[in-house]
Amino acid sequence: MRPLSLTGVALFASCAVAQTYQRLGGCPDLGCIFPPDQADFLPGQYFDIRLEVHSPVNGSEARVGEPDPNFKFTISKKGKRAVPATKFFDIKEPELERWNFSWYEDLFAEDADKASLVNVTSKAYRRVALYEPGEYEATLHYYGKEKTVANWLVRDIPKKRRAKNVILFVGDGMTTTMITAARLLAHRSINGKYMTKMALDKFPVLGHQMTHSLDTFITDSANSATALYSGHKTVVNALNVYVDSSEDPFDDPKFETISEIMRRRHPGAGVGIVSTAFLADATPAALAAHTSNRGEYDHVIGAYLNGTLSDFDWTKWDGPDVLFGAGAENFLTSEDAPRDYYKLFAEKGYSVSLNKTALQAAPNDRRALGVFQISNLLTWLDRNVYQNNLKNQANHPDGSGRDAEDLPGLKDMTLKAIDVLNARHGKEGFFLMAEAASIDKQMHVLDYDRSLGELLELDDTVRATIEKLEALGELEDTLIVVTADHGHGFDVTGSVDTEYLEAHEDDRDKRRAIGNYEKSGKSQYTVGGANALRYSEGAHFPARWDPRYAIHAGTVAFPDHRENYKVHKEGARTPAVPAGSSDNYVANYKDAVTGFLVNGTLAPDQAQGVHSLTDVPVYARGPCQELFGGTYNSIDIFYHMAECLGLADTQGDHHHGNNGHH
Ligand SMILES: *[C@@H]1O[C@H](CO)[C@@H](O)[C@H](O)[C@H]1NC(C)=O
Ligand SMILES: *[C@@H]1O[C@H](CO)[C@@H](O)[C@H](O)[C@H]1NC(C)=O
Ligand SMILES: *[C@@H]1O[C@H](CO)[C@@H](O)[C@H](O)[C@H]1NC(C)=O
Ligand SMILES: *[C@@H]1O[C@H](CO)[C@@H](O)[C@H](O)[C@H]1NC(C)=O
Ligand SMILES: *[C@@H]1O[C@H](CO)[C@@H](O)[C@H](O)[C@H]1NC(C)=O
Ligand SMILES: *[C@@H]1O[C@H](CO)[C@@H](O)[C@H](O)[C@H]1NC(C)=O
Ligand SMILES: [Zn+2]
């Protein structure tokens, strides 16, 4: 057990308790240390330190005046003498920086537009590392007698490498309830017993991870991807940095990610990134970018390309070997980003594929970029069942305004990524992340059918990946982890007679169509329909998506919307539309004309559903699988993968000057 830092609580009991409004997440009082209290580190992991001293004019704190320019910062290994950080890391004293920022204390202050101004003094120590496992105490001394203490833990992690490859599947937003629902839709059961299992059901180890962020109990995908890939929790919108109070989105204290450490510790190892999202989106971006703002899309694509953080003398990991996904808009020349990234990637030696045929024909011995359309990849349901929805999209990845044709899915991209990584890095091994992004994206718009289709595609991809690794002779050397970054409050509570619902006019009469308990019946998705014969081994998807008795599905928090429980054959749902102003969303009548109105439970400015609190499942198979059983924190996924890949560096044997003390 590590001690809790009580300093802040004792000195400033009246502040920092605001919940939705915080001066600065992770900063307990007027002195801030990043990495903050309770941060964990992989031995030898590079990170920056940011110190801030605050001096608010108005706020609960009484202190007025200049922030302390003479603060001191010391570090000690537990049981040893505290020494100045400059001596501890053998680095020069950084320059003092000054800025100011303002914030609202609460909703009343925001309504009254009464911001509190804070003057700041700050210093940043760049690219340091702690090599020796154990507990450390970092102390910021300021305003004479005041201090902020951060307790840090360098985890004692075995250094022996146990897996050649790690494949991490991220079902964005995926919960156990969604997996249960997907199974119900795609697997036939007789008298309460399933005749077939999902690929996930066959994994030997199942765990639970807690997804909370640094300063809020609900996370976003930037924050949670950061935790999964770096072992550090941060705040909403941040990618691989702790967020300081300065305006610059690129000066925040960084920490090293699994892609960077993998290349540094195992020169010649491969890194692959696959996503069904636009590639500048948070879950893929967190393997390359370091910024407080996930919306810095050009920085994200630049970070994939450059694979370096030239500022602050960070390591050069040289970018991924494989980058497959969507979001062509961030690769094409535009006003915001005058670079033609396709050309730049090609110049760096990447093959560039803009469709599935080209993807499959791309040489396996070269780095590979594949960008298949503008925006997020159209969903499995649209690509495979309601293909009319592929038309009139003007989403060709060449930016010509034509429709993208010949789209690959998650499975095509993942299997090709494995071919390339294995061909190029068969000896040194690889780390691959493959994201099923639209489980989350379709949950947000309450389109449960599309979301579950994406989940089934993920399951089919996992199944095909295991087969592929077996064929390549790599299965026993590969750790496969399938997890999520957060959940949505989704579940199924029965079934709905969609014909009865449609046949009635009155909203309350329509609701009599909902059957619970004994009236929920059996899954109607597995019988009849065009795909009825798909029930052997191999891919499992529903035989039909539009049965009369549909699942009665929903989430715990939603905007105003209408519900008829029918699959949306004309494309993804838009549950709510703005009425009058963009902060007032009401039900979209056209979204479910035959349905009934459901009044929202979210703030009226929310157009979509939101992430929820639930722990999410972790499936593991392969070397180190036993590490993933039980209930643990999101960051433990990183530490377990890093352990399995032998990434811990307790010697500083790859250092370039800035060493931790030993
Ligand atoms: C902040 O700094 C400005 C000068 O830049 C000064 O006028 C103001 O009083 C300061 N406020 C606090 C709270 O330090
Ligand atoms: C600070 O708060 C005091 C008391 O609430 C108020 O009179 C004053 O105008 C505030 N100053 C600023 C700069 O907001
Ligand atoms: C805050 O900083 C800006 C420059 O970043 C400066 O122009 C402004 O005067 C400062 N405000 C105060 C109250 O010190
Ligand atoms: C990548 O390198 C180019 C050329 O050196 C530079 O202009 C760009 O800012 C860099 N991008 C990032 C994200 O570092
Ligand atoms: C796919 O890409 C290849 C290579 O650029 C191109 O020759 C082919 O015409 C494309 N196919 C379609 C259907 O767009
Ligand atoms: C929805 O809310 C409105 C008030 O905003 C109310 O008049 C209406 O009865 C509610 N409808 C349902 C179905 O709850
Ligand atoms: Zn989301």
From TrEMBL:
It comes from the Eukaryota. Mg(2+) binds at residues 172, 281, 283, 435. Pfam families: Alk_phosphatase. Its EC number is 3.1.3.1. Its cofactor is Zn(2+); Mg(2+). One of its GO terms (molecular function) is metal ion binding. Binds 2 Zn(2+) ions. Binds 1 Mg(2+) ion. Zn(2+) binds at residues 172, 440, 444, 485-486, 611. It is an enzyme of class 3 (hydrolase). Residues 1-18 form the signal peptide. SMART domains: alkPPc. InterPro entries: Alkaline_phosphatase, Alkaline_phosphatase_core_sf. Keywords: Magnesium, Metal-binding, Signal, Zinc. The active site is at residue 221. Belongs to the alkaline phosphatase family. This is alkaline phosphatase. It comes from Aspergillus nanangensis.
